[in-house]
Amino acid sequence: MKKEILFLLVIIFFPLTSVPVLAEENQVAKGARIFNNNCSRCHNARPAQEFSEKEWSVIVPHMREKAHLTGKEALALETFIAMTFTADKTTQPVVEYAGETGKDLIARFACAGCHKINGGGGTVGPNLNGVVQRMGAASVTRKLLEPTFNNPSSAMPSFPLTLEQVGKIVVELARK
Ligand code: HEC
Ligand code: HEC
User: Fold this and answer.
1) What is the crossing angle of helices 71-86 and 53-66, to 10°?
2) Global confidence as pTM
3) Could you state, in order of their start, the residue ranges of all structural domains in the chain?
4) I need a labelling partner for 35 at 20 to 30 A (CA). Which of 52, 64, 110, 130 fits?
């Protein structure tokens, strides 16, 4: 009897807890796409970290008019920019989802917001196709654990990732 109740609770609560998380991730990817597509029309897309979060809160409404963004697009853009500030492993806990693949992690952290992958994505950072062959798996691993190791002023966020999660990303990138 107890087992059945537990099973029911899992069924009832699982969708409730997982849906908002997914929606949030899609906002990040959508915002990244807007950042790269709409914002680079007039000037180079500037790395989010070049400005403080406070400065961005002034820049986004101003540039929203220039880029003719809808309210929803502006919100997604702000979510992406906020993610690049909050995706800092010194302040953010590592979050692990069961069964999350390298591909899922690349989507969750919106790598394509700043990098081209298979032709699509941003130009703030270098193209990631062939990056493992070019740099070697060890350097790509190090780059993800500590983006400033070879570039002290790197605009790449220091994502809250475990070594295992980084490994999954590197394996996925090696296929590209
Ligand atoms: C229609 C052209 C146009 C579009 C589209 C555009 N910008 Fe700009 N952007 C400008 C111009 C012109 C300036 C410099 C003068 C100003 O601030 O108005 C500027 C300045 C900036 C600056 C520098 C601010 C500073 O103080 O140095 C940032 C950052 C910026 N834009 C980000 C963005 C973002 C993010 C988007 C996408 C939402 C975007 N821009 C879309 C024309 C554009
Ligand atoms: C906010 C923008 C941004 C995001 C998001 C981002 N990066 Fe980067 N990344 C950069 C920039 C800029 C560089 C180039 C400067 C440097 O080497 O630090 C870079 C460099 C790299 C490099 C080294 C490439 C080379 O040719 O030297 C790798 C590998 C990389 N990023 C992987 C990733 C992965 C994987 C993700 C997602 C987990 C990611 N990046 C997310 C901005 C970003």
Assistant:
1) 150
2) 0.67
3) 2-174
4) 130
Which of 33, 44, 115 most suits a substitution to test ligand 2, by most atoms within 8 Å of the C-beta?
115
Q: Does domain 2-174 have CATH number 1.10.287?
A: no
Q: List pocket residues of ligand 1, CB cut-off 6 Å.
A: 38-39, 41-43, 46, 51, 59, 63-64, 66-67, 69, 77
What is the number of the ligand closest to the CA of 88?
2
The Cα–Cα gap between 111 and 119 comes to: 13
Instruction: Calculate how far, in angstroms, residue 43's C-alpha sits from the geometric centre of ligand 1.
Output: 7
Q: How far apart are CA 174 and CA 131, in angstroms?
A: 7
Tens-digit pLDDT profile for residues 66-120? 999 999 999 888 888 877 766 667 767 888 999 999 999 998 888 888 889 998 8
- CA–CA distance, 158 with 147 (Å, rounded to integer): 6
Give the position, in ligand 1's atom list, of the atom nearest the Cα of 41.
5
